[in-house]
Design goal:
The protein is mainly α and about 425 residues long. It is about 50% helix and about 10% strand. The longest helix is centred in the N-terminal third of the chain and has 32 residues, at about 35-65.
């Protein structure tokens, strides 16, 4: 590692020497000798330190850009000089300078960043909803969003920022949504060698509809391939032992989707989007206008589909709710299952941000221990964490580890 000497009168040398020394000490840690709790501590603190270092860099970059020292080498901009000297992509240096200028103009954001309470990803998300149309509202409301960044999962914070933008500038949001829809396109062309190449751009509703059908067919292909591999090997196969890679399976699923569309019966029913109207939802959560995959929609984007959509109503904590299902039933079905899907919309496990492609409903208090099949005792789960929970129950009862588990989740694409 290059050393930094601190000559007499140097104002920054000692600070840089101390910083490099601290990093060197961390680099010399014997990670194999650390117990799990200490290793976890290093992971969390290193994330905080990285955020603090980014904040220090932002403060320095703003002052250095204003100083104009970069002009001596004939650079067109500070970003161009930094990209040249550090051998970085120009878009990356532009992004760093843009974040630095904008964040330091917001004292609360700059302070939270400097303390390591938020990361550059939070800063970028906050700045993405600060537009010329929302600037006045952002000046008054960004500290509430900043508080969410401190205590919420990133996916929840990001979604709430998008909702805030919709409420702060509904007309602009509708214009952006219309522009996004106008940008939809699909290109499919044949090469000289007979291969086909394509690219598609879809609006949120159309994209979610295509993705859901494609993911369902891909799951069918995966399960069939998994079963064939188990029969061939006499054991559960590894993902690498399956016949197709995820991208190949997805391409085959796309072909299968086209074949099914061509062979659909003449009297077949056209699939329609389902709109769920949630009544009695907590006021704190704010207005909900999202696809099931959590993409936030504008009212106009949703209204465009209403003539083709089906509409269901889910009422929570009201005599007219549609979740009256016998408490002794073992499985969550029908209206009760749908109510839990609409209420939770994501896996219960705090580390899981995956959208449940094929969601399952888990008993909070296990049914094997008398847990009732009710709304209060149900929660949405992805297949992995639901099986993990069931496996832990089996182990607690003295069974074999993993006994009773279903097959694995499809591999990530």
């Amino acid at each position: 590692m290059e050393s930094i000497d601190a000559p007499s009168g140097d104002l920054v040398g000692p600070a840089l020497v101390a910083a490099r020394g601290a990093l060197a000490a961390l680099a010399r840690l014997d990670l194999d000798a650390l117990p799990s709790d200490e290793l976890t501590k290093v992971v969390l603190e290193s994330q905080r330190l990285r955020a603090q270092l980014d904040a220090v860099e932002a403060r320095v970059l703003v002052r250095w850009e204003a100083d104009g020292a970069w002009r001596v080498d004939g650079a067109r901009s500070a970003a161009a000089w930094l990209a040249w000297r550090q051998r970085l992509p120009l878009p990356e240096t532009r992004r760093r300078l843009r974040h630095a200028r904008a964040a330091l103009a917001l004292p609360a954001v700059a302070s939270a960043w400097a303390d390591g309470e938020i990361d550059r990803a939070h800063v970028a998300t906050l700045l993405s909803v600060r537009t010329p149309r929302t600037e006045r509202a952002f000046a008054c409301g960004h500290e509430a969003l900043l508080d969410l960044a401190r205590r919420s999962r990133f996916c929840d914070f990001q979604r709430r920022c998008r909702r805030w933008e919709l409420m702060a500038d509904p007309d602009g949001a509708e214009q952006d949504a219309e522009a996004a829809r106008a940008g939809r396109s699909l290109h499919l062309s044949e090469s000289f060698g007979g291969m086909w190449f394509g690219r598609m751009t879809l609006d949120p509703v159309a994209g979610a509809a295509v993705h859901e059908v494609l993911a369902g067919i891909e799951q069918e292909l995966f399960e069939a391939e998994w079963t064939a591999g188990r029969d061939r090997l006499g054991r559960d196969p590894f993902v690498t032992e399956l016949e197709r890679a995820p991208a190949q399976r997805r391409a085959d699923a796309f072909l299968e989707m086209a074949i099914r569309a061509r062979t659909a019966p003449a009297d077949g029913r056209r699939p329609a989007p389902l709109f769920t109207v949630v009544v009695g939802y907590e006021t704190f959560a704010g207005p909900v206008l999202e696809l099931f995959n959590r993409t936030v929609l504008t009212p106009g984007a949703a209204a465009r589909w209403l003539t083709e959509a089906e509409v269901e109503r889910v009422v929570f904590e009201s005599p007219s709710r549609v979740i009256d299902v016998g408490a002794r039933r073992r499985f969550f079905r029908g209206a009760l299952r749908r109510a839990i899907e609409v209420r939770d919309r994501e896996c219960f496990h705090p580390t899981c941000e995956d959208l449940p492609r094929f969601p399952e409903v888990d008993h909070i208090q296990p049914a094997s221990r008398g847990g009732p099949t009710t709304l209060a005792n149900g929660r949405l789960a992805c297949g992995f964490h639901n099986r993990q929970r069931r496996s832990a129950e089996v182990d607690d009862r003295g069974g074999r580890p993993g006994e009773g588990e279903a097959g694995p989740d499809p591999p990530d694409g």
